[in-house]
Structure formats: structure tokens, C-alpha cells
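I have been asked to look over a protein record a colleague put together. The record follows directly below this note.
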Amino acid sequence: MALVTLTIDGKKVEIEEGATVLEAARKAGIDIPTLCFLEDINEIGACRMCVVEVKGTKALQAACVYPVSNGLEVHTNTPLVRASRRLTLELLLSNHPYECPTCIRNLNCELQALAEKLGIREVRVPGIREEFKVDDSTPSIVRDPNKCILCRRCVAVCEQIQGIKAVAPMNRGFKSVVTTAFQQPMADVSCVLCGQCTLVCPVGALYEHDDIDKVWKALADPDKHVIVQTAPATRVTVGEMFGMEPGTISTGKMVAALRRLGFNPVFDTDFAADLTILEEGSELIERLEHGGKLPLITSCSPGWIKFIEHFYPDLLDHLSTCKSPQQMFGAIAKTYYAQKVGVDPSKIVVVSIMPCTAKKFECRRPEMNSSGFQDVDYVLTTREFGRMVKQAGIDWNSLPEEEYDDPLGVSTGAGAIFGATGGVMEAALRTAYELVTGKTLERLDYNEVRGLEGIKEATVDFDGLQVKVAVAHTLSNARKILDRVKAGEVNYHFIEIMACPGGCLGGGGQPIPTNTEIRKKRMAAIYEVDKNMPLRKSHENPAVKMLYEEFLGKPLSHKSHELLHTHYTPRPKY
């Protein structure tokens, strides 16, 4: 691609033709503030925070959309530019609630940070504030339009990344609002509760439904036996809540923190991920050998499950009937574990630490009670867990490295890679190959299904049986695959779909910010965890073997179907 040369604040910058002034400024180390800008997703020049002076133009230009050209002369720090940015920010603040100390995004709010950066000490323009109703109709996400700055980042990610369009702008002037179709509660529209909107919202207009107080209450109840499980992806993300670099592996510190919060014992969802592979791999083999519905599609992402229920209910029989690892864990905890330790299951409280807001919805699905009780009681996102640790006054950096408890804390590397897109597929292939062929798999790393490419395809040789597989992350990519399946254009045997970009490591409950570069670092850490595990195949997990010997019998047994499998519900789009 051809290069162009321009001048920014007297500095010569060379950049590819087609780039924007914002990109050129960042390359030159010049900071231009933004609010509505979201790289490759929301580049609309709407908020006007990024305005600059361009020589030869009559008005200030939005740097995020203004194209570079040879000889262009740009000024980013003139009196007019500074005055314009300050006025724009004051106007935004004039119509914004002054609730910073009590806001969930306090000290991690882009609007607040810009006000500090630009030195805003007063708002000279009195605003007219509309009073909008806070929508807390779902167990997963709360929407507070009173804090919305109309940047449309949530609109863009919902439409472009997830292909859903659950929210959109409505009305004009002070009555402008980002809302659902016909302003219905979020519980009544086809929102899949993935939480990607909460990751990109620059303020506190969208956030996870906070269940911390409920968990504190359970921990304080001497009559309750409160256990906790931690999802695979949390071990490489939770450190970010305490200033650690993205991709820092914090498994041991996380376990130590949970014990100090009062959880006892501390278990690992990776155990249930290994269990899921035994059930799902056996289900795949059964369908391959006995002519079941193909392709088999994974079922451990609750946002994806709600998506197919809304938009492709005619394909529900392609889904694996396996519950997600979170829900398998809950069912086993309140049956097998309860019997093993002699605790009344009615007194057991199962808490999950998850990277996902949709998990809050999943645990409340009416079919998730095969233990005779609600299998999982409370779900805390990675962000909520981080806040809980801070509330307890725990010094994260001084925590020792501690180990999970037995037996539901024993896991393999295959369970860990569930946290990355392609990980469920790779874990399933490691086990299915050996179950089908009876041979030891020599190559454990399936690089064909790794990485952040939207859709990945591969053909795996099971000793002469050619198994065609596909992996997709984000629901817009799920649409592409499902449309091809419906049209008969593909003949996959097995498909993995994750709702969130990058899989669970990019889940809607993860630390903010979460972007492509951060996802790459987290993904590298997930595979590092796998590589360092003594066992890397789910069917080699000794605790899972013991579970089958003592309780379940075998994969796909009558008892495992009762506890570990589920059914799905066609849902309307509106």
C-alpha cells in the first residue's frame, strides 16, 4: 500500500494511504482524546472529542474519520481545539448524573478520566436532564439510560460483532436515548445477555447485575456450606483487576483470595470442563457411529445458546445436550460431592466466578435443577470478584500461591483451554481421537483451531475417519456458519461456537478494558497454562475417572443424562 506523509504539530508522519488522522497521531505518539471511537467497530465521528485543526478547512475536523493525504498539516493542540473539546465535554457533563463516587465505573470511567485530563473544574452550561427508567429486568445486565452519553459503542458492538441489534438510538434532542425495540425491558427482547455492551460502554450506562451482597450474606450464614468454582479464563484475567499485566497467570493467588473471603472448599470449573469433554466427546462418537444429527454443535456458551433459541430454533437438535461446565459442576456438587462429604445438599450454596454475564441467566434457567435444587446459586463476574476482594481489604500482591481442593479441583490442560476460542474443540479432539482409535495421540496441539480468526476450519484424521470441524467466535460469525449449514453448503461433523470475541477470555464479565491486544495476551497465557499441566487430556483426569467409577457409571449413562444433560427452548425474536 502506498505511503503518504503529513505533518502533525510540526512533526512529519509517514503512514499508509487510507489511514485517519487519529491513526497517524497515535503512530507519532500524540494523544487525541476520544469517546465514541471503537477501532474497526464504531468510527463515526459523533462525539466530537477528537477534533483537530486541518490547514485549509473552514471547521474543526474529527480526527477519527478524517483521511490522511500527502502534505496535510494538522494541529491538535491549539486554543480553538482545546476550547472546543472542553465545551463538548462540559455539554456532555451537563446532562450526566453527578454520581461518580457511587457509580460502578468510578475510577474506571472514560468520561471521568477525560474530565480530569482536560482539567474540567466547573460545568458552565446548565443541562436539561430527562429521567429514564433503569432497566434491571434481566439477571445479567442493568441498563441505565440516565448515564448514557449516546456514543453508540454498544449499538455498534451488538450489531456488527454479535449481529443482533438488541439496542438502537431513538428520539432527538434531550429525549435521545439508546434503547430496545419499542422500549421494552431487555428481558423481553432478543438480547442474549453476552455483556459485550458492558465491555465497550465508556461510562456506567451498562453494567453487570451485581450479586456480591447475596454472596456475602451466604458466606455469613453458619448454616450454609458455601463452595466456589472458578472458570478457566478467570485465572488469566483476574490479575488485571489489581494492576497486573494482561495475561498474567494468577491461579494460585485467586485460590488464596477465595479462601480468605470465606469459601471452603475452593474448586475448579476446569474439572467440570474435563467432565463435559467426556460426555460431549462420547455424544459426538455416538452420532458419528449411529447416524445422529450432524453437525454436533457445542453448548457451553450460554449467550450462544440463547442466540440459537431466538434466531435458529429449527437447528436446536444440532446442539449437544450437554450442560455447560458451570451447570455440570453445580449438579455434581449437590449430589456426588454432597454424598461424599455428608452435607445436606439443601445447605450447599454453589457460587461461580465466571468471565460471563450470560452465566447469571443460565444458572436461573428452570431446567437447571437436576440436583433437586437450583444447581448453581450465584454467579459473580471476574469484575465482581475483583471488587469483592477489594471490599475485604485483601492485598492481592502479597497473596501466596495456593492449590484447589480435591476432588472437584483436579483438572487437566484440556479443561483450561476452554477459556479460548477453539479450546473446547481442541480438548474434544484430544479425547475423541483416543476413544475412537484406541491409540495414543502424539500431537496434542491443534493449531488449526487456535487464534482470533473469526471462522476456522480443519479436517482431522481419526485413523482413517476424516472428521470435518469448524470453530467460530462472535455471534455474527455464528450466523454465517448456521446459514451455510441450513443451505447445505457445508458438511461439518463438529462445530464449536462461542458468543464472545476470543471466547471466554473476552467474555462480557471480564476486566475493562478488553480489546484485541489484551485478548491475544490472555490467549497466550491460556495455552501456557495448558502446556504446563502434568495432564493434558480430559479422559486422564483421575477425579473424573473416580466420579464415573463411584457415581455416574459411564459417559451417557442414565444418571449422567439426568444430571449432566439438558434441553433447549425456542424463543421469539421479540
Q: What stands out?
A: The first helix runs from residue 21 to 27. The chain has a mean pLDDT of 96. The first strand starts at residue 3 and ends at 8. The domain at 3-77 is CATH 3.10.20.740 (Ubiquitin-like (UB roll)).
